Amino acid sequence: MPHPEPGSPHQRSLFHAPTRYALLALIRLPHDGTYRLSRTLAAELDLPGPFLAKILQKLSHSGILESLRGPLGGFRLSRHPEDIPLRDIVLAMEGSEPFEACLLGHPSGGPACQCPIRPAWDQLQELLTTMLLKTSLKDLQLSQLLPTPPMEIDRFFVAPV
Length: 161
What we know:
The protein is mainly alpha-helical. It has a single domain (17-144), classed as Orthogonal Bundle (Arc Repressor Mutant, subunit A), CATH 1.10.10.10. It has helices at residues 17-28, 38-45, 49-61, 86-94, 97-100, 118-134, 137-145, and strands at 65-68, 74-77. A two-stranded antiparallel sheet has the order 1-2. β1 and β2 (74-77) form a beta hairpin. α1 packs across α4 (86-94). The protein is elongated. The relative contact order is 0.13. The model is unreliable at 5-9 and 148-161 (pLDDT under 50).
């Protein structure tokens, strides 16, 4: 997985890099109960081993993964992938901030926030929460198996430049 060079623009994402790496690692875990070593996953993802190990430990502490020390150990899913909503993963990695914080960073946040865009932000957060609850790790795993169709531009829906 190519990483951006220092000083280059980063890929835009709603979530921090550790959350994205957690999702990528979880996609690669088998659902047959076998353990995978963090260093094996790190090599597959082209990530530093200690960095991914911290991510996997965080997921283990949150109950998404089980860990086992020793030569036959590693990490495995604690539940079937279809029973792990993406919201659980995001909460484990990001905390509740993406679901509660003020978009402009006002300290009050939540319903008490007097930010002028708060009503629209509340709607977006509700959509995000719903999507993350309805989408499971299994859905992500299946999407990785399907070939990506070529992108075609529908000229009837392209805005004039």
